[in-house]
């Protein structure tokens, strides 16, 4: 597979691992206090475990698995609202497959489908739009979930809905934005992170400039990084070189995909269709100001919440679960009392276990045998 | 859920609202190209794009990909000349 296999080359992987080990030896102060590198994106978390990268690295280098998995931070109350909308007999409720197994207070979308609700997994919001065109007597609702990577797809789909005058289509918006959450994380006093691997595909939309405050105000190095093993190791090496030199800058390892300014056309579409909400809830992290979006007044007619008025839901996490501490690097997944017992991928209690990109699911799949 | 896959644009429609055909690992996908089409759709034929949830999200810069691989090859060549410090395993 072109541009995938090349970035999995074993000889180059070995060379990168050697160079990383050499650089760590040049930082002897890190023998006592391990370096903590946060990979922000769930895609990175999954790749690190899938390829076993953490096991190939020196012991004094730790990955902290960050909040960049939109399924993991999806509040249970929003799932309850999805179920309420999907219960309308005229509704075809469409979602990415990732959200099907997340439980709300009243079960998951998968449970609701078993009980007869018309809930469909789609690959693209355009598939949902086509369902609206093919079923003019039904109301098609798309569950818009995800960061800036998936946001432009939702925005363009709504623009098309307007162009095609498809009035039986609407969006239930759960799009969230990473930057305010990274800022809130850095403001917490007991979170110790030495540097960031920033999410490659969010960055291809927003560009590199929005991360500037992390390097300038918090003096932490950050490298925008791709998703293959060589990408992740090279991003890590670039971080270590900055740390060794006492620098903090925003650098881009993933230049083949991420232009410095991001995707201008996508940014224009986002500005037309979405605007910031005052505050949004993140599972495990709580309310974070300006961390989510809603439809602009110009697109309010496509807002599923205006069309179906689901009740506002507030569902507290079980106090025994430690999802929030895992998300902020204060706790490893297997230190949670529920891990592997009440909470497993087939019967997930916390959202970090539901998604294959969640830290707990990755630990369960790849690390349980050694736990 | 932010993952994407590289693919090569095989054919395009008359305007950017028509779906293009993109070859992803031998599978033909119907893909929206409005986010990568600054010029005419025809200019995209043969280009590599990153596909995510039915949309081409970014043009793959082949020159950058090749430069990155060349830099890593250089790192490997230097590493082969410079052994690890004695008694230190490369991996731990």
TrEMBL record, chain A:
<protein>
    <recommendedName>
        <fullName>Hydrogenase maturation factor</fullName>
    </recommendedName>
</protein>
<dbReference type="InterPro" id="IPR042243">
    <property type="entry name" value="HypD_1"/>
</dbReference>
<dbReference type="Pfam" id="PF01924">
    <property type="entry name" value="HypD"/>
</dbReference>
<keyword id="KW-0479">Metal-binding</keyword>
<dbReference type="GO" id="GO:0051604">
    <property type="term" value="P:protein maturation"/>
</dbReference>
<dbReference type="GO" id="GO:0051539">
    <property type="term" value="F:4 iron, 4 sulfur cluster binding"/>
</dbReference>
<dbReference type="GO" id="GO:0070025">
    <property type="term" value="F:carbon monoxide binding"/>
</dbReference>
<keyword id="KW-0408">Iron</keyword>
<comment type="similarity">
    <text>Belongs to the HypD family.</text>
</comment>
<dbReference type="InterPro" id="IPR002780">
    <property type="entry name" value="Hyd_form_HypD"/>
</dbReference>
<dbReference type="GO" id="GO:0005506">
    <property type="term" value="F:iron ion binding"/>
</dbReference>
<dbReference type="InterPro" id="IPR042244">
    <property type="entry name" value="HypD_2_sf"/>
</dbReference>
Automatic annotation (TrEMBL), chain B:
<dbReference type="InterPro" id="IPR001109">
    <property type="entry name" value="Hydrogenase_HupF/HypC"/>
</dbReference>
<dbReference type="GO" id="GO:0005506">
    <property type="term" value="F:iron ion binding"/>
</dbReference>
<comment type="similarity">
    <text>Belongs to the HupF/HypC family.</text>
</comment>
<dbReference type="InterPro" id="IPR019812">
    <property type="entry name" value="Hydgase_assmbl_chp_CS"/>
</dbReference>
<dbReference type="GO" id="GO:0051604">
    <property type="term" value="P:protein maturation"/>
</dbReference>
<dbReference type="Pfam" id="PF01455">
    <property type="entry name" value="HupF_HypC"/>
</dbReference>
<protein>
    <submittedName>
        <fullName>Hydrogenase 2 accessory protein HypG</fullName>
    </submittedName>
</protein>
<dbReference type="GO" id="GO:1902670">
    <property type="term" value="F:carbon dioxide binding"/>
</dbReference>
